[in-house]
Amino acid sequence: MQLIPENTRKKLIANWQNEDENKDPFPVVKLFNPVGAATWLITEMVLGQPDILFGLCDLGFQSSELGYVSLSELENIRLFGALSIERDRHFTAEFPLSVYAQAARIHGQITFEEKALLQAKAGLESEKRRLRN
Fold first, then answer.
1. In this structure, are residues 11 and 28 in contact, taking their beta carbons and an 8 Å threshold?
2. Whole-number Å distance between alpha carbons of 124 and 84
3. Are 55 and 68 in contact (CB under 8 A)?
4. What is the pLDDT of residue 3?
5. Helix 97-107 crosses helix 114-132 at what angle (to 10 degrees)?
6. Residue 37 predicted with pLDDT over 70
7. Cβ atoms of 109 and 60 closer than 8 Å
8. Distance CA 42, CA 57 (A)
9. CB atoms within 10 A of CB 101
10. pLDDT value at position 22?
11. Distance, CA of 59 to CA of 36 (rounded, Å)
12. How do residues 73-132 score in pLDDT, each as one tens digit?
């Protein structure tokens, strides 16, 4: 399976080109290890460098972080048998990347649990209000 189809590449590049310093895009792609704990929530693809992706990366060691990852490296990972890194074709982000990152900090891993994500969102909103005042 192609990890990043062409229509998805366009969305990722559009997110990269958004120069708003307050940008907080929604993840566009969820990549995962089907036999392990690694997960990547990708928001951007570097314009002119389609091998470089940006997002929330979680290798399963309770240390999720925002950063860059190489698409070709992900595509070349070979797991047990014929398995490889996969794209969740049914994934649709419900929150911006900052919420997933905050929830991951709290829970030690990327989570999709609604309660955890809503708590992370509320905490971020509270922090923004505090900083404005």
1. yes
2. 35
3. no
4. 93
5. 110
6. yes
7. yes
8. 8
9. 22
10. 67
11. 9
12. 999 999 988 899 999 999 999 999 999 999 999 999 999 999 999 999 999 999 888 888
**Residue 9 is inside which H or E element, if any?**
helix 6-17
pLDDT at residue 1, as a whole number? 63
Q: Per the structure block, which two tokens stand in for 123?
A: 């905490």
Give the max Cα distance, the chain: 56
Structure tokens at 110: 């990327």
Indicate the length of the chain as a whole number: 133
3-state secondary structure of 86: strand
Contact criterion met (CB below 8 Å) for 55 and 66: yes
Sign of the torsion angle spanned by Cα atoms 103, 22, 57, 105: negative
pTM of the model: 0.92
Residue type, 104: A
Which residue has better confidence, 22 or 16?
Answer: 16
Other beta carbons less than 10 A from residue 9's beta carbon: 16
Cα dihedral sign, 50-54-56-60: positive
